[in-house]
Amino acid sequence: MVQASMDGILLGILFALIAYGMALQWGVMNIINIAQGELVILGGYIAYTMYTMGIHPAFGVIVAPIIMFFVGWFLYKLVIYRVVDRDLFISILATFGISILTQQLMNFVFGADVVVAQSNFGTTMLFDNSVTLPNSKIFSAVVSIIFAIGLVIYMKKSKLGRAIRATAQNARAAKILGVDTEKVYAATFGINAALCGVAGALISITFTLHPYVGLPYTVRSFMIVIIAGLGNLPGVALSGMGLGVFEEFADYLLGTEFRIGSVFLLLVLILVYRRFKLSRKREYLK
Amino acid sequence: MKKIYKFALILLSTLSLILGTTSTSFSKVEGDKIILGAAVSLTGKYSTNGKHTQNGYNFAVTRINQMGGVKVGGKSYKFNIIYYDDESNSGRAAQLAERLIKQDGVKFMLGPYSSGLTKAIAPITEENKIPMVEANGASRSLFTKGYKYLFAVLSPANQYLEVAIDLAVEKNGGKPVNIAMAFEQDAFSQDVRLGVIDAAERTGSKIIIDDKLPKELNDMAATLAKVKATNPDVLALSGHSKGALTAIRQIAEMQVDVPMLAMTHCDASKLAKQHGKKAEYALCAAQWHKTLTYKDDFFGDGMKYDNDFNMEFGYAPPYQAAESSAALLVWKDAFERANSFDTEKVRDALAKTDMQTFYGNIKFGSGGQNTAKPMVLFQVRCEGDTCENKVVAPTKWASAELVHPTPKWSER
After folding, report:
1. How confident is the model at residue B21 (pLDDT cuts 50, 70, 90)?
2. Do the Cβ atoms of B269 and A210 come within 8 Å?
3. B48 vs A contacts (CB less than 8 Å)
4. Cα–Cα dist B302/A83, whole Å
């Protein structure tokens, strides 16, 4: 039980970081990024490349976001700016295209083999070996929390952060007041990609990398954002951890085959409940 | 009148088109070349193994052609393969098989990589009565459909881990064992699972954990927590390369002690290289290993094949390449015994195949599976920091003795 909850929480924090980026750019730019998972894996490959060059992959959490920020910026200038004011459907299509292209490029560059980077961090044992916590997962959780808190502070204090928040509230008003929304959008997409880069570097030392495993990360972060609701950053962290724990418990108690199914069932229940609450509210307003 | 004329014209042109396309389908042998067709995954998620498959085919073609080719009716013929890239996509593979047969007029096929893609192609070769020798589709369901034109040089998937269960029972003094297992939900891994269940029934062993892993698996912590709580004698796993790498990483991290860990895809995932000492003592099922002592006239034995392949392509051949090369040896043998290019005669000759190759003995069962070759089990063993796969079963070819039970993590 303790094992399952700890595993769930550590897993959830990592997923929350990816969802965090998604929530940010969804809120600011109204774009659902299907390529989120691919950006994560690309970040992972950056850390893996460092590992193959003899550098400890943990440094990937510093290098990957820097490179990924520019990748994100570049992607914005290349594709996203054309679809940012359009229909949501168009942005889904565009990012879907990016996702396929990224997958194939990663396959071309890094090969189709499944790879792992070794952190050799060891394991922390609790309660006389009955609960084991891989230090790499603890490291991932700590790094994720640091980046998440850092981002919140940056959004509150810095000039760019304020500009991003203003644009999210009302892009037109922000533009009139002299905010360069183009730049804000590009920076937002870059920040999202950088967060993905961090998460990817962490995944390279906790899980496995393969050009085609991005989609589960996209789906997971999408779900976390839906459950948390847009613009609710603490909610993202909570729902990330909640889903992680729920998933581990479903796996532990019902069996692995019910793991993903039960998470989706939970999603449906939450959406139905939301709708129910919404309809009650409407009545009240009448 | 004009209408009838128009109709006749259309009819005539359609007929000539049909005739035109069918007439090319007699061109299975051009000059002194025997044309074989193959759709392999050169891009997409199977591209690594697709490349191994293609290299295996090409290596054998060059070797056989150099050593005199195929002798049919007193004349020597050379092999030639038409390749298409199936993009690791079963729909595309089926299309390409159709194209090879209908447009390119190929009469003899080689298999693609993976069970899934072979399953997509088999109905088409069967319908067109085109014999196919495949080397990379091990799923049991390929051999239970009553296909007449499908021949596989490899052992079916259900045999992968049966040996390991038998070995565990033997090490347990002939007494039944407790088995924990986790298999990915795909055709191949589920077949491996059926084999384990068969072996468990046969030996009276008990299955205490039976997890089905999702395809997008990246975390096995919950399964391993259950294993820790129940202390089974054997942990059997299969989930392609991703499953093998995830399992070893998390078993090491969670310090799961289990007397025997048996899995698949250790060599495809380069387990010994990627995880090093963490993977030590893992038992792995494989179709082939270079130290086996089977022999043939073309490649010598496994060690020589390994050496020559390495010279040619710059890397050690995984079993996917070896079995692909063996497929060509089967074709050559069948053509020479049939002494004809008639597809029916060649098919009958294939069905009667009984030969030894460097890769193993080959004899086809009624469903087209190879019944003459046992699986080998190897164990990852380390000396210092370098880890290697050593054959431990069957004992005839064992190059190292099995370490059992696996030492506890606290003692390593």
Report:
1. very low
2. no
3. 111-113
4. 57
CATH of B26-155+292-363, picked from 3.10.180.10, 3.30.1200.10, 3.40.50.2300, 3.20.20.140, is: 3.40.50.2300
Residue B223 sits at the chain A interface (C-beta within 8 Å): yes
Say which CATH number the domain at A142 has: 1.10.3470
pLDDT averaged over chain B? 88
> Could you tell me if residue A129 is inside a domain?
yes
Which ipTM was obtained for this model? 0.82
Q: What is the pLDDT of residues A23-43, one digit of tens each?
A: 888 888 888 889 999 999 999
Q: What angle do CA A90, A93, A98 make, to 5 degrees?
A: 125
A216 contacts chain B (CB < 8 A)? yes
Query: What pLDDT score does B27 carry?
Result: 46
For residue A35, the enclosing domain spans 2-259
Kindly write down the DSSP assignment for every residue of B119-130, as one continuous string: HHHHHHHHHTT-
A161 contacts chain B (CB < 8 A): no
Q: What is the pLDDT of residue B303?
A: 93
Residues of B in contact with A11 (CB under 8 A): 219, 221
The closest alpha carbon to B261, from B137, B409, B374, B124, belongs to B409
Query: How many structural domains does chain A have?
Result: 1
CA distance A131 to chain B (A): 8
Query: What string of DSSP letters covers B209-226?
Result: EEEEE-TT----HHHHHH
Distance from the Cα of B4 to chain A's closest Cα (Å) equals 50
* Residue written as token pair 């400890």: A56
Domain assignment present for residue A270? The answer is no
CA of B319 vs chain A CAs: smallest distance (Å): 16
Backbone angles phi, psi at A6, to 5 degrees: -65, -45
Domain for residue A283, yes or no? Answer: no
Beta-carbon separation of A259 and B223 below 8 A: no
Its sign, for the CA torsion A238, A239, A242, A248, is negative
The pLDDT, as a whole number, for residue B5 is 66
Measuring CA to CA, which residue among A79, A10, A4, A12 is closest to residue A241? A12
Q: How many Cβ contacts (< 8 angstroms) between chains A and B? A: 102
Measured N-to-C along each axis, helices B319-338 and B47-66 cross at an angle, to the nearest 10 degrees, of 40
B211 touching A (Cβ < 8 Å): yes
Q: Residue ranges of the domains in chain B?
A: 26-155+292-363, 159-286+375-411
**A281 inside domain:** no
Contact B270 A113 (CB under 8 A): yes
- Residue whose C-alpha is closest to residue B285's, from B369, B368, B183: B183
Q: Which CATH architecture has domain B159-286+375-411?
A: 3-Layer(aba) Sandwich (3.40)
What's the predicted TM-score (pTM) here? 0.82
The reply to whether residue A208 touches residue B48, judged by beta carbons under 8 angstroms, is no
pLDDT in tens, B174-218: 899 999 999 988 888 889 999 999 999 999 999 999 988 887 777
Q: How confident is the model at residue B61 (pLDDT cuts 50, 70, 90)?
A: very high
Can you give the pLDDT at residue B19?
47
B165 with B183: CB under 8 angstroms? no
